[in-house]
Design goal:
alpha/beta; three-stranded mixed sheet; 11% strand; Arc Repressor Mutant, subunit A
């Protein structure tokens, strides 16, 4: 074994030891523990709760110790509960559930040499962690949590002041009493509509990429999602070919989206293009997910194809309805209003990559000024420089519309230049996925592409039409941080709603169980329950197969008695399969706290 380093050679360890309290607090008594759980009930920073789960999972993954993972998660969680971040009771129940579930992992059980927790292991761990949490200054805990938020807030301020047009977006939002980030999302969707369909991203993975983009404006009903779209229309003056206006219909079905770009001319007996640019709008995500959740719906697959710029259209016996919209022949953006509690179906499509394709922008402004600033001048976006070759039809827009149903020639594409560092980041992530790296999430590729689309939007908003710069990429990184934080908050709101629903359902089930228990108790089970509890006091736990040995003629009541005790909350039933595969259980008393 290697020699232990001197303290002078391990400054980080020395700093940790110096920061540790000189005296470790003794375990809280059961009544003190209950008082602790009842006292610290504030929930002022619920998004931080996600770190509790990640701490347990990380410890379990890296160290393989269920006890260590449990202790570290409790220690962190109770410290943050004392600081008012989230209820201590939530920490207790969540870590207890994860700890118990970890014993379902046979590989961990074999490694640790045990298949169940020690008696009182969790309870004593919680009593210890709570006692230590009371020694920590809550302000220190909040300061640690605030470091990341403060750093992001500083980057956000740097974002708004980085360019005149970004400052104008924030100022316009505050003058109209709407959220700057929500307005930015709507502005981005409008600005990208200026980019012609033939303008593509480099073929980094598979083929050329598209700047087609989706934005979710996140907030409760009445938060200003609809008026934000209208404000973006007032702020951004688009210069489209031929002086056209941006078409902005509501989303229906996948087929309905295709119909906005092309149709079948029955007189000419051929497919014809209608337009190349469409910004779809959805007032509330519930209507989008309801449509997408119908049996046989093509909406979500169509959205995923549209995001990548792939061809759209569906096979149909009636060829007049099999309308083709070819790859990179259309520009599609979409703005969706999303109440957090209604966004679950959208998040449920994570395996398909749908939520990763959205930019999630909040409709709140914690820094809204008391006095509204003056309204800035509108921002002119476009026109995109006209191509010198490649179109034989008079007028650029007319030519592009005529080509909507015609397969593209990659030679006609205008490929945007991107920084070499961006190319390296995208390729490095993709190579990890190809090589089967367990830490590589294939859907992270969508996040990088979303960031690149944002960078293109920032380039266009800045009045440039040639290449994405390093500054565009860096600013897009701040946007993605805000988007990721907003999406996590949506997930947390949904999780809290689900927990409330589960609690209500559990309480109803509990009432039914208690009613059943009262009936069973009238049938003479009290005597058998008393005998079981006395036996458990001596032996700690009993298997079902142990019951006949001491119950004698009452052995036929063992199952009903065990269920009755479990319904009362006096015992815990651990169900498992015997060696012959038959279901069975063991019973152990529940420690009172």
């Amino acid at each position: 074994p290697a020699p232990l380093p001197l303290m002078s050679e391990a400054p980080q360890l020395l700093a940790c030891l110096r920061a540790a309290p000189e005296d470790e607090a003794p375990l809280l008594a059961p009544d003190e523990m209950q008082a602790f759980l009842d006292t610290y009930t504030r929930s002022e920073r619920m998004p931080a709760f996600e770190g509790l789960i990640k701490t347990f999972e990380r410890e379990l993954r890296e160290n393989g110790s269920r006890h260590g993972a449990m202790i570290n998660a409790l220690a962190m969680g109770f410290r943050e509960a004392v600081a008012g971040c989230y209820p201590a009771h939530d920490v207790y129940t969540t870590v207890r559930r994860m700890f118990k579930k970890s014993f379902e992992d046979d590989e961990l059980s074999a490694r640790e040499g045990r298949a169940r927790p020690s008696r009182d292991e969790f309870v004593r761990g919680a009593q210890w962690a709570a006692a230590q949490a009371l020694l920590v200054d809550p302000e220190e805990t909040l300061a640690r949590l605030n470091r990341d938020d403060i750093a992001l807030d500083e980057r956000v301020e740097g974002f708004w002041t980085a360019r005149p047009e970004l400052s104008a977006v924030r100022q316009f939002a505050q003058s109209r009493l709407i959220a700057p980030w929500a307005l930015f999302g709507a502005v981005l969707a409008r600005s990208l509509a200026v980019v012609p369909p033939r303008v593509v991203l480099p073929p980094l993975i598979g083929s050329h990429g598209s700047v087609n983009s989706f934005v979710a404006l996140v907030g409760p009903s009445g938060a200003g999602k609809s008026v934000t779209r209208a404000a973006a229309r007032d702020l951004i003056q688009l210069k489209l070919p031929g002086g056209g206006r941006l078409h902005a219909p509501n989303v229906g079905s996948g087929e309905g989206m295709v119909d906005q770009f092309a149709t079948y001319d029955r007189k000419a007996k051929e497919f014809v293009g209608l337009r190349t640019r469409v910004m779809f709008t959805v007032d509330e995500v519930e209507s989008l997910t309801a449509q997408g959740g119908r049996s046989g719906s093509t909406l979500f697959p169509t959205l995923r194809s549209a995001w990548t710029g792939d061809s759209l259209g569906f096979a149909n016996r009636d060829k007049t309805k099999a309308i083709p919209v070819e790859a990179h022949r259309y520009r599609l953006t979409m703005i969706v209003g999303a109440q957090p509690t209604k966004a679950q179906p959208l998040l449920d499509d994570a395996d398909g990559g749908t939520p990763q394709r959205f930019l999630w922008m909040p409709t709140t402004d914690p820094n809204a000024p008391d006095v509204e600033p003056a309204e800035p001048e509108p921002i002119i976006v476009g026109p995109w420089p006209q191509p010198k070759t490649g179109f034989s039809v008079s007028g650029v827009e007319t030519a592009e519309v005529a080509l909507v149903t015609t397969p593209p020639d990659p030679k006609s594409f205008v490929v945007l230049a991107i920084p070499e560092s961006v190319r390296e980041d995208v390729l490095a992530q993709r190579k990890k996925v190809l090589r089967g790296d367990p830490d590589a999430n294939p859907l992270d590729g969508h996040a990088l592409m979303t960031r690149l689309k944002v960078a293109v939007g920032l380039m266009v908003l800045n009045g440039r039409y040639d290449k994405v710069g390093d500054d565009d990429w860096d600013l897009a990184g701040v946007v993605m941080e805000v988007s990721n934080r907003t999406r996590r908050e949506v997930e947390k709101v949904i999780a809290c709603e689900a927990a409330k629903s589960n609690q209500a359902r559990g309480e109803a089930e509990g009432r039914r169980e208690l009613a059943k228990a009262e009936v069973l108790e009238r049938d003479g089970l009290a005597r058998v329950c008393d005998r079981i509890m006395k036996k458990l006091k001596d032996v700690g736990e009993l298997k079902r197969s142990d019951m006949p040995d001491f119950l004698g003629r009452d052995k036929g009541l063992k199952d009903d008695a065990a269920e009755l005790l479990a319904a009362r909350g006096e015992v815990e039933l651990v169900r498992y399969k015997a060696k012959n595969g038959s279901p069975t259980w063991l019973i152990r008393p529940v420690e009172k706290e």
